[in-house]
Amino acid sequence: MSEATPARSLFHESRRSFLLRKLHSLTGALPVGGFLLFHFWTNAKALQGQERFDAAVADISHMPYLPVLEIGLVVLPLAFHALYGVKLVLEGRPNVGSYTFSRNWMYTMQRVTGVLAFAFIGFHLWAYWAQKWLGRMSPDEFYPRLCADMASTMGGVPVIALVYLFGIAASVFHFANGLWGFCFSWGVTVSRRAQRMAAVVFGAVGLVAFLFGANTVIYFATGAPFPGTPGPSAEGGRSCADIASPSTGSAGSTGAPARASVGAGAAAQASH
Questions:
Q1: pTM score, whole prediction
Q2: How far apart are CA 169 and CA 12, in angstroms?
Q3: CA 179, CA 206: separation in Å to the nearest integer?
């Protein structure tokens, strides 16, 4: 009779890859995904004017143990999820040319959007969060800086705003499709019916999240949010156009001339 194979610990070396993949899935769904949605919600305060936006940022800045929370709940989970995700991308072998199943395409797109989201989030964190930590920018400078950056153009093209729109699209797709993968791999959606329902639900969540983020970017870039969305003037707040106006003394900011012209064009379109 053959000897029984001894039970292996959950932390045995042979199960390391399994645990890392589970942790990778978990960090994408909870701390990283939750922060993404919270970030969209906070930035949407910009649609109500600088005062509301600054108040939302100040509330976060005054949270107790903020550096510990930022490092422990955002930076470290994000770094692990991103770096291990890059490892999975490098180890993967896309085969959508041979097997054109929808989930195979989703698997490939998950890897592609993960790399794009990693690059975009790194760019965004360096431009704002890192500058705050380095003492080069105070939180009350975020709003005018976003107004100037999003409205700035190169050859008449709002490059930064487009980078943000594509970056948000990649991040949201990666998050929503990752939620489907999380539920599948953790045994939440076992049946085909549950998997189809999850695809619909998470697809809707992704669409709503993208519209939230895109609406804020479009407002910063043009001075006008999506139709039907109240702008700063309706809320009695200070808008990007107010900041860029020469009368406010802020016209010297980078990208302000573009903001003034774009904001005026948006206002003219809204009046028709």
A1: 0.81
A2: 38
A3: 10
